[in-house]
Amino acid sequence: MKRVSLTQHLVEQQRHNNAITAELRLLIEVVARACKTISHSVGKGALGDILGSAETENIQGEVQKKLDVISNEILLEANEWGGHLAAMASEEMETIHPIPNRYPMGEYLLMFDPLDGSSNIDVNVSIGTIFSVLKAPEGMGAPNEQAFLQPGTQQVAAGYAVYGPQTMLVLTTGKGVNCFTLDREMGSWVLTQRDMRIPEDTKEFAINMSNKRHWHAPVQRYVDEMLAGKTGPREKDFNMRWIASMVADVHRILNRGGIFMYPADMRDPSSPGKLRLMYEANPMAMIVEQAGGAATDGNGRILEIVPHKLHQRVPVFLGSKNEVERVTAYHQA
Ligand code: AHM
Ligand code: MG
């Protein structure tokens, strides 16, 4: 079979469907190249001195791993000089990173979670990078945080790289979802799955069960009904998976269906869940919707949430459409 590289795929998108601009194509290629570099570091592990804590804290008070910091630097450096961006924002940085004056300024805004699934770094379990692209508002002038506070429906591209047994890049520019596998010998991304689709029904769910006692009633009900299996109200047995790397859980769901949940719970009423809207929930919601699935915060589409701050957190329910609709309906009951 003829191999299609990421570059060829993007050029064709640009040429035939007018789906992307030349600047956006460059942006995606640069992000993909940065992910290749991160993948290389991940692969070295202890041999590359990338494991363990960086002994610093990020803006959310989480202790940063060395690889969180390294991945953030790789993405910043790769994306500064190309002229395609106005600014970047990252889960690991307090505020936005405008493009330095010595480089031309472009029209896009890039957001990323440089290394998702940090708790899995030191134990050699799949981790990833998640990214989201917005257009800077017309006449923005100097970039500021406000420019980023657009609902997820405004994303022009979103994707993730998963660093697992294989390194893969899953990408959407709003016309379906495609998956590329990194050819490690050639150093190139090769298109390996076109138009990924999430089955509407599933028998598999993903949630951190250890938090069960803290969940609100709708989530308790939904999970209890699944756990009751064949003789319960759902009349079928369910299976559970929890990798604790959102990228890896979402990647499984894109391939064979399932529902992923990280709900808000009763522990801290001021904190609506763990995952971040701009770097995790929005890009994953765009990918999942583009693959025929659904993504809500229990009330409505994640993509329609108007953000009020950069590091905002949201409850997340995403994956197979019928299951996401069911748990969302339980929140309204
Ligand atoms: P991180 O961005 O600090 O790695 O945190 C996000 C991760 C997700 O990838 C994953 O779904 C979740 O945290 C796991 O949380 P928990 O350890 O509570 O199960
Ligand atoms: Mg994360």
From TrEMBL:
Cofactor stoichiometry and binding remark: Binds 2 magnesium ions per subunit.
InterPro entries in alphabetical order: FBPase_C_dom, FBPase_class-1, FBPase_N, FBPtase
Catalytic reaction list: beta-D-fructose 1,6-bisphosphate + H2O = beta-D-fructose 6-phosphate + phosphate
EC number(s) recorded for this UniProt protein: 3.1.3.11
Cofactors (names): Mg(2+)
Cytoplasm listed as a keyword: yes
Principal location listed in the UniProt entry: cytoplasm
Residues annotated to bind Mg(2+) 2: 113, 116, 280
Gene3D superfamilies found in the cross-reference section: 3.40.190.80, Fructose-1,6-Bisphosphatase, subunit A, domain 1 (3.30.540.10)
PANTHER family: FRUCTOSE-1,6-BISPHOSPHATASE-RELATED (PTHR11556), SEDOHEPTULOSE-1,7-BISPHOSPHATASE, CHLOROPLASTIC (PTHR11556:SF35)
Name of the protein: Fructose-1,6-bisphosphatase class 1
Record-annotated Fructose-1-6-bisphosphatase class I N-terminal domain positions: 5-193
Assembly, per entry: Homotetramer.
Gene name tied to this protein: fbp
Residues holding Mg(2+) 1: 91, 113, 115
Similarity comment text for this entry: Belongs to the FBPase class 1 family.
GO terms of molecular function: fructose 1,6-bisphosphate 1-phosphatase activity
Pathway entry: Carbohydrate biosynthesis
Residue ranges constituting the Fructose-1-6-bisphosphatase class 1 C-terminal domain according to the UniProt record: 198-332
EC main group: hydrolase
